[in-house]
Amino acid sequence: MTALGIDTARKEAFTVERGARPGVKKVMIIVTDGESHDFYNLDKVIKECEEDDIERFGIAVLGDYNRNNRSIKEVKKFIEEIQSISSDPVGDHFFNVSDEFALLNIVDALGSRIFALEATSGNYTSSFEMEMSQAGFSAHTSKEGVMLGAVGAYEWNGTVVMHTNQGTVVPLNADFQDPLDERKESLAGYVGYAVQSASTPNGELYITGAPRYNHTGRVIVYKLDGEIITVTQVLKGEQIGSYFGSVLQTVDVDQDSYTDILLVGAPMFMGPEREEQGQVYVYKLNEVCGVLCV
């Protein structure tokens, strides 16, 4: 009773009482190992799913057909039925597997396509921008506003969201690239793991750590002018796996309202005894030019 199952799910699963939220994509996965006994209702039910904007993935399990040596004609008819209930383009929404155990082989592909429905890049890719950003992973209040680290943004490259009186600034993936580093080894760098700000006579500096960048970690110092990000300095870790930049703290030592030093933690730094002893780097801020020196 495939049509009845689809219609029941359409009516009962996508309700506020069951956790549905306005504006969130509706997804239905239909797994079946045989033709429907109520095929005469399929066209009507699928039309209603379209009207309700429900994205449908159809999975045809051929185990019973293979075990009973069903004819090619019967297999083809079954596959065509499941294709007909899958959303367009069918190539992105239809799967067929040889038996029940083979369902495990399509889990990753199916998951990527479902995740991609919420991704901003479209085209059924698994590229994400802010959908899994975890904004608020770290937080800091500066003189200009609130900084929220979003380590999961841009496929875990990360970013820092800034909330000010003028609005919200969400930097692009490329905004934190080091212009002097042509390699741009930023994959899963975790920008935003830690956030801080520093006050100088020439304005506010914003600081964020990316402890997984190039495996050694780095700290990015930047300025914010409206929505324009200008990277002024990059501090680089020296040891693989040390998690350099995962902890940040600025300090106004002489209490003159200007930042004097930046402390950068590398909690997994391996000491001479070959143990994780951790290390703290101390950078002195040059108030005139806003450069940090170790």
The rough form would be described as elongated
Structural class: alpha+beta
* CATH structural architecture of the largest domain: 7 Propeller
Instruction: Specify the CATH homologous superfamily of the largest domain.
Output: Integrin alpha, N-terminal
Biggest pleated-sheet summary: 4 strands, antiparallel
- Mean pLDDT across every amino acid position: 85
Calculate the terminal CA-CA distance, rounded to whole Å.
71 Å
Gyration radius, rounded: 27 Å
* Helicity, as a percent range: 10-25%
* CATH fold name of the largest domain: Methylamine Dehydrogenase, Chain H
The amount of beta strand, in percent, is 25-35%
- The first-level CATH class name of the largest domain: Mainly Beta
Biggest sheet, spatial arrangement of strands? 4-5-6-7
Membrane topology: Single-pass type I membrane protein
GO molecular function: integrin binding; metal ion binding
Domain VWFA: 1-110
Pfam family, one: VWA
